[in-house]
Amino acid sequence: MIKNQESGRLKYLLFVPTMLVLISMTIVPFIFSLLTSLTNYKATEPERWSFVGLDNFVRALTDKDVQISFLNTVIYVGCAVFFEFILGILIALLLNRKMKGISVIRMLLLLPMMATPVAVGLMWRWLFNTDFGIFNYYLSAWFGITGPNWLGDHALAMPVVVLVDIWQWTPFMVLSLLAGLQSLPDDPVEAAWMDGASPLQLFWHVTLPQLRPVILVVLLIRMIDAFKSFDVVWTLTNGGPGLSTELLSLRVYRVAFKFWETGYASAISWLFLILVIVITSQFIRFLYRETSK
């Protein structure tokens, strides 16, 4: 009996180092950022700070640069996730069949995901370079057209950034949806074929309803990840030209580490967190409602 009690205590004691690390790396910075957001703290002047209450939050909500960054983030996440899903489901349907070399194709699909974001951003920055980028070269060589300044044009910079994100993360959609397709039961599909359903009817009325929980989970994961995007956009455009591609993550970085307004940056981060929580909670609620049907 005594040995069992000692082993039980030891079991809980073994959790203590892990819990201390988790607390020091997550909860402590979490609380510190909340407290900092209520002050005018600056990293360059740590001794000259004062409590300002909700002034930083009011300032962030009325700041035009933050509003532009917010709109850019919504456009970026919405467009990227939408097109990644459309391409992902189409490619997954094509790969969900027996064909030669299918395993090689699936392996090649992993390559964009395996590349580091900074490397991806630098690679595409060279490809879209105005003077010696490959796209402008072929526009000139094949069509005699002078290529545009892809990353320096206000109208083109955001589509380019979205395109790069689609290139890197569509494989995630493909592999996730393909796994979902291969896990579906065959009986409903065979029954629909016997009833004379067309391929489109089969997909819309049989496959898609069964795949809906997988779709919602994949969209949720990808959306949360897209909200955190920083590396690719930073290396591609540095948030420019102007503020045309500056996301909220870049705005927080710029305010915190270029203007050194740590308190204000913390307030923007908290508003960013609230935005993500609201959107993801609605997705989760919709997911539970759909899966409970």
From TrEMBL:
Q: Name one GO cellular component term.
A: plasma membrane
Give the record's keywords alphabetically.
Cell membrane, Membrane, Transmembrane, Transmembrane helix, Transport
Kindly list the places in or outside the cell where this protein is found, as annotated in its UniProt entry.
Cell membrane
The record's Pfam families line, in alphabetical order, gives:
BPD_transp_1 (PF00528)
Q: Which GO terms describe its biological process?
A: transmembrane transport
How this chain sits in the membrane, per its record, is: Multi-pass membrane protein
- By what name is this protein known? ABC transporter permease subunit
Q: Tell me which PANTHER family the record gives.
A: BLR7065 PROTEIN, INTEGRAL MEMBRANE SUGAR TRANSPORT PROTEIN
Q: Which InterPro entries match?
A: MetI-like, MetI-like_sf
Q: Which residues form the signal peptide?
A: none
Write out the transmembrane intervals: 12-32, 74-95, 107-127, 156-181, 267-288
Instruction: Give the ABC transmembrane type-1 domain ranges.
Output: 70-283
Its primary localisation, in coarse terms, equals: membrane
What is the top-level taxon of the source organism?
Answer: Bacteria
Give the family this protein belongs to, as stated in its UniProt record.
Answer: Belongs to the binding-protein-dependent transport system permease family.
